[in-house]
Amino acid sequence: MANSIDIIVKNSNGDEAEAAASASSILTIVNAAYFTISLSLGAQAVLLNTLIEDHATTKLKYNFVVADRILGPWAMLMTWLSLCTLALISSLYILRCVFHLWLVKAEYSDREAVNFLFVPWISWLLLLRATPQQVLVRLPHEVLLWALVAPIVALDIKLYGQWFTSEKRPLSAVANPTSHLPMVGNFVGAWAAAGVGWRETALCLFAVGMVHYVVVFITLYQRLTGFRAALRPVSSLFFGTPSAACLAWSAISGGFGVACKMLFFLSLFLLASLMCRPAYFKKSIKKFSVAWWAYSFPVTFVAVASTQYAEEVKGVAAGGLMLLLSSLSLLVFVAMLILTALNTDRLLRQNDSSLSFT
């Protein structure tokens, strides 16, 4: 491109070579789906902080005195890594909006990409949730919460209103697994609002999200066709969304009651259902793409819900389930980190159309 700034590097022989990406081309590549990386980092930070603060771990007689010394620095590292990654991707996306606004408009008009526009706000809300309390009290967290929830509500009105009234783009025509992301935004927003005592706001967000989740779930259950293979990892949201709802309702109601347990068990059932059908993801795993990060944060949501379930039930089986899901979450997360490090060049190639919305 005319305004691109080429990055020049020298190899060991002293020869000059052009890097594969330019500053301008990176802005055309980094779309809203890349925020799933920061979302997974934030979810992992929340899980680690939950494990540290969870009193059920000591009651279940696990040696979390040692684990606290290990998980404490790891949780702090994840929080800072999430902040840095989210700030970097947000900066690139803001520049994308300034210099390539037509690409952002294309995302806004795409039936899959528009759902990823919720992910930046969800990522910041999770980061706010993962921030240590002693740091949080020094921040205007109520102002920050309003600033993060307001865009979710605005996108809700646009998207849900379109599903409800549009003749060209009704839900039955555009529904796909990424359609769960708006509901995740509602539930995480409700979870965060309940955490600062905004019960009415939390109830409003939860009610809107829950009704639409039921409608989306039934729609997708009846028809799951025409979904691109590259985005099939996003099908993990089938079990991640009820877990997010479970955490939101637990924060609103003040306990892990029957409704929370039902949502948690639904998550476990859907997780087992997808794990038993690896052939469904066969085409999506041929080439690495940023969509693979959608495997990480839904598992982490289930793991966080399992910690609250273990706190409520206080049984060996519940504690074992918590450890199993937490270990699975960490395993998937580390695998995504390694795969991303090995495929960085692929994620920054302009000719990689596996996750292109234009």
UniProtKB/TrEMBL annotation:
Localization of this protein: Cell membrane; Endomembrane system
Q: Give the GO cellular component terms, alphabetically.
A: endomembrane system; plasma membrane
Keyword presence, Transmembrane helix? yes
On whether Cell membrane is a keyword of this UniProt record, the answer is yes
**Keyword line:** Cell membrane, Ion transport, Membrane, Transmembrane, Transmembrane helix, Transport
GO BP: any one term: intracellular monoatomic ion homeostasis
Q: What is its main location?
A: membrane
Give membrane topology per the record: Multi-pass membrane protein
Q: Name one GO molecular function term.
A: voltage-gated monoatomic anion channel activity
Q: Which domain of life is it from?
A: Eukaryota
- Membrane-spanning regions, if any? 32-52, 73-94, 114-131, 205-224, 236-256, 262-280, 292-310, 316-342
Q: Which Pfam families match?
A: SLAC1
Q: How does it assemble?
A: Homotrimer.
Q: What does this protein do?
A: Slow, weak voltage-dependent S-type anion efflux channel involved in maintenance of anion homeostasis.
Please report which protein family the annotation says this sequence is part of: Belongs to the SLAC1 S-type anion channel family.
Which PANTHER family does the entry link to?
Answer: S-TYPE ANION CHANNEL SLAH1 (PTHR31269:SF60), S-TYPE ANION CHANNEL SLAH3 (PTHR31269)
Listed name of the protein: Tellurite resistance protein TehA
Source species: Salvia splendens
